[in-house]
Amino acid sequence: MWIDTHGHLDAAEFDADRAAVHLRARAVGVTTCVIPAVAAANFDNVRLLAHAQQDAYALGIHPLYTPQATDVHLAQLDAALHTHRHDMRLVAVGEIGLDGFVPELNTPEALAKQQQFYKAQLKLAQQHQLPVILHVRRSADLLLKGLRDTPVVGGIAHAFNGSLQQAQAFIALGFKLGFGGALTYDRALQLRRLATELPLSAIVLETDAPDMPPHWLYRTAEQRAAGHPQGRNEPAELPRIAQVLAELRGISLDALAAATSANARVALPRLQ
Question: Which residues are involved in binding a divalent metal cation 2 (predicted)?
Fold first, then answer.
């Protein structure tokens, strides 16, 4: 059995066949998907979807949505975390973090706002005693500094692609590291090396559906220009992604499923 620790199943890309996506995931043994919010506007959507599908959810404001975010949205997050504090399907504050890749988010003013919302949401996670799901894109060191300033009860560094030293720093702070479709590419040498060198106890699996497609779903710019749409990722792809990792580590698929599912429950205890 598998746990997909990160999938945006409320995304518009799934509007036409969301029920079928859910059934395909269950058919291949993906028993749970964690659905993280990205903005206050979709707090209710992810919660209702998680309950309808017997999945789990997280509430937070994604760094890509901080330009439009206000203190009112932070207050809404605080209120939602309080209102649903006894909801065992609410497993984390997330998706939160910092993005160092998108140029318009890295002007001095935009980066300051990203950091303001990251720190504020860490404080909410601390107050509500919840783990966090972190967006880590060219931002690992700044995220680690925030965690040292405002300690939380662990969580997941989603789509991790930093250095071994940074990985070890997250692990020391009680975090698991999320791996998904990116490691299926032969050219992802650093990521593959990281996924094999880290202790198995540090790894959780994710799809980031509908994004982060594995290599068999990826379409090049030329293919897209010729009319072939980019492949849509979904939780049912998780076992095939896991097969790549199992082969890299030289372990059985069953052993990987058991270990990564146990790790997910450690990172997000309400999954128990």
Answer: 135, 158
C-alpha pair distances (Å), 10 with each of 54, 63, 70, 101, 234: 14, 18, 22, 24, 12
Q: Are strands 2-4 and 30-36 parallel, antiparallel or unpaired?
A: parallel
Q: What share of the chain is helix, strand, coil (3-state, %, to 5)?
A: 55, 15, 30
Residue ranges for the known binding site for a divalent metal cation are 6, 8, 95, 135, 158, 208
Please give the tally of structural domains in the chain. Answer: 1
What amino acid is encoded at 182 in this protein?
A
| pLDDT tens per residue, range 102-150 | 999 999 999 999 999 999 999 999 999 999 999 999 999 999 999 999 9
State which residues form the domain around 81. 2-271
User: Would you list which residues are annotated within the binding site?
Assistant: 6, 8, 95, 135, 158, 208
* Integer Cα distance of 133 and 151 in angstroms: 14
Q: Could you tell me which residues come within 8 angstroms of residue 17 by beta carbon, excluding any fewer than 6 positions away?
A: none
DSSP state at residue 209: B
CATH for 68: 3.20.20.140
